[in-house]
Write a structure and sequence with these properties.
The protein is built from 4 helices and 10 strands, in the order βββαβααββββββα. It is of the alpha+beta class and 137 residues long. The chain has one domain. β6 (98-99) and β7 (102-103) form a beta hairpin. The structure holds zinc ion.
């Protein structure tokens, strides 16, 4: 579900989060090679994005979970009303991409943690998301 960006803040790890009109936050990390959003690094280019639509993963996740009967009635509205509610179960998912005898690895450039280390592509599981969907994302 597309939602307009109404502001930005940084999380405890220093990653940028877009504040959306629905009340949810959406990370907008610049973490090459995984996510390239150089615009998030400068105040002026962030401000230029105010009002722009961004896909709200949490609205989509709750709507999908509700359709599958995994999400109780009112959970989406409760998540919008409580910005401190956890946005994900904090489960890490990695994907192993193989071609013949080669394996895809990425090197973290992030200044916040793991800089210079090699890792499989991956990320955090979102609320109500299954492992396959997370891996594809
Ligand atoms: Zn939302």
């Amino acid at each position: 579900m597309q939602q307009p960006i109404v502001g930005f803040h940084q999380d405890d790890d220093g990653h940028w989060v877009a504040d959306l009109a629905c009340g949810h936050g959406q990370h907008v990390r610049h973490d090459p090679p995984w996510q390239v959003r150089e615009w998030v690094l400068e105040d002026s280019t962030r401000r230029a994005r105010l009002g722009s639509p961004l896909e709200c993963v949490r609205c989509d996740t709750y709507a999908d979970a509700r359709m599958r009967g995994l999400c109780p009635e009112g959970a989406l509205e409760a998540s919008r009303a409580d910005p401190s509610a956890p946005s994900s179960p904090r489960v890490g998912v990695a994907v192993i991409v193989r071609r013949d005898t080669r394996v895809l690895l990425g090197r973290r450039l992030s200044a916040t943690h793991g800089a210079g280390t090699w890792q499989f592509p991956g990320g955090h599981l979102e609320m109500f998301e299954d492992l396959e969907t997370c891996g594809a994302r």
